Amino acid sequence: MTDLTPANLFGLNGKTALVTGGGRGIGAMFAEGLLGAGARVIISSRRQEQLDEAVAELSAIGPVEAIAADCSTEEGCVGLAEAVGERTERLDILVNNAGATWGAPMAEFPDAAWDRVMNLNVKGVFQLTVALIPLLEEAASADDPARVINVGSVQGLQAPDIENYSYSASKAAVHHMTRVLAKKLAPQHITVNCIAPGVFYTKMMAHTLDTFGDEIMADTPLARLGRPDDMAGAVVFLSGRGGAYLTGAVIPVDGGYATTL
């Protein structure tokens, strides 16, 4: 008889995961969820002090370590992959969460806003995934694929009112790249899916919520902000055996904000 217990479907004991941008915000929510399900978690971020704080907090849940890295450059992505390879012989789960945003009126939107956001949000996701394919292949099997989980946004699913042109374009690109990579990597037993978060209170979203929070809440059918357990549940589902037959999917976790428009 097939084991359909929650422990088998969603338990991650013995798995190793890397969460980029895992020192705060949604990345820290992902890391906490993976640790709670039994995984060993490596987090990365550009700022060592941020990582030190996150490790001190997350260590109470499970085994976590940190690597400082800049995923906006190919050199940074390759260096992070090499550092992960020094710590583990296989990588079961890659969560491409590191990201940047930029807001400015159209007439004032600078060229630097395109380079900074697209380099990290799109090129970095691609370059780090490619650099980690050998470690992902070591963990992959037909029965239990290795997992790549990209992080998009509901702002890549609809035309937002907020003037963050490079950000919304970058997240739409991540959604489609997820499908392309899913098709390419399926023969290697690596699934690629995407979580598209709605509105969660994070440092990145603080200004937006302070300015447009009431309007956003009014447009959200479930009438609340996202919580850490919402993100944790999504990443654990995609990482566990219960999500092994899913690839190329973009899953909005948004309280209906984008999906019911």
Describe the structure.
The protein is of the alpha/beta class. It has one domain: Rossmann fold, CATH 3.40.50.720. 45% of the residues lie in helices and 15% in strands. It has a seven-stranded parallel β-sheet, sandwiched between helices. α2 crosses α8, α4 (74-87) runs parallel beside α5 and α5 (111-139) runs parallel beside α6. It is globular, with a radius of gyration of 17 Å.
Number of strands: 7
Q: Can you tell me the CATH superfamily?
A: NAD(P)-binding Rossmann-like Domain
Q: What is the topology, as strand order, of the major beta sheet?
A: 3-2-1-4-5-6-7
Mean pLDDT: 95
State the major sheet. 7 strands, parallel
CATH top level assignment:
Alpha Beta
Oligomer: single chain
How large is the count of helical segments? Answer: 8
**Total separate domains:** 1
Structural class, from helix and strand content?
Answer: alpha/beta
What is the CATH architecture term? 3-Layer(aba) Sandwich
Rough outline: globular
CATH topology type: Rossmann fold
Q: How do the SSEs run, as a string of H and E?
A: HEHEHEHEHEHEHHE
Describe the secondary structure blueprint for this structure:
Elements: H1 6-10, E1 16-20, H2 25-36, E2 40-45, H3 48-58, E3 64-68, H4 74-87, E4 93-96, H5 111-139, E5 146-151, H6 165-185, E6 190-197, H7 206-218, H8 228-239, E7 250-253
Parallel strand pairs: 1-2, 1-4, 2-3, 4-5, 5-6, 6-7
Helix pairs in contact: 2-8, 4-5, 5-6
Index terms:
single chain; 261 residues; alpha/beta; Rossmann fold; seven-stranded parallel β-sheet; 15% strand
